[in-house]
């Protein structure tokens, strides 16, 4: 269990900076398509990844027809380029480790775009396994407090099976990031709901196991600029990093 976290006030800069920034329907459509393709089902009840992607589509008010087309594409019912999921790894400014999830119809094109950003930032794109060992694949849930006190609630969440709990404030509301093993995400989410918490979001993430502290203002600017540029690439779905701004 962790104590008070700066995660919210710095917009969770050390962890997943997901597809909410620079959100586009293309990104969400690709997420839906790849979820169906890899999950082998168009039923969100039996395909957790699809359910998460559909929640993302709802959050950005994606038209229902767009959602249906993306799902049909994943099932092979519609013509179009074949999408594949790719993960890139490397070190960016401040020697921070970056893990990038992308969905693309042209792996070489996406590779070159990502590589160029790494090189311009002074970092370097690595091979498979170069930084992924610094991250754990976990289920993450963002939930609201029940108002019973932070210590009591964090202990309750741990007792339910959480592997870690981080607290933060959002618009003066006490909230928590609750972590569990990736395979237990749906089970844990149901447990949390059953004891009265509101689960605002549940998803699979790569959570850093080691953190690089960044204090120099110039390096802070560079690492945030680099992160934003990665997120703005159309093929990029999610960006994970292990830096913490001090």
Shape: globular
Architecture (CATH level 2) name of one domain: 2-Layer Sandwich
* Beta-strand residue fraction: 25-35%
Total strand segments? 10
Secondary structure category: alpha+beta
What kind of sheet is the major sheet?
A: 4 strands, antiparallel
Order of helices and strands: HHHEEHEEHEEHEEHEE
Q: Which strands sit side by side, in order, in the main sheet?
A: 3-1-2-9
Radius of gyration: 18 Å
Poorly predicted tracts of residues: 1-22
The portion of residues assigned to helices is 25-40%
* Tally of alpha and pi helices: 7
The CATH homologous superfamily name of one domain equals YebC, transcriptional regulation domain
Could you explain how this protein is built, in words?
The chain is α+β, with helices and mostly antiparallel strands. The chain has a domain at 135-208: 2-Layer Sandwich (Alpha-Beta Plaits), CATH 3.30.70.980. It contains 7 helices and 10 strands. The protein has helices spanning 25-39, 48-59, 64-74, 107-120, 150-159, 185-194, 217-232; strands spanning 84-91, 97-104, 124-126, 135-144, 164-170, 173-181, 198-208, 212-214, 236-241, 243-245. The strands form 3 sheets. The protein has a 4-stranded antiparallel β-sheet. Strands 5-6-4-7 form a 4-stranded antiparallel β-sheet. Strands 8-10 form a two-stranded parallel sheet. Helix 1 runs antiparallel to helix 2 and helix 1 runs parallel beside helix 3. The longest helix has 16 residues, at 217-232.
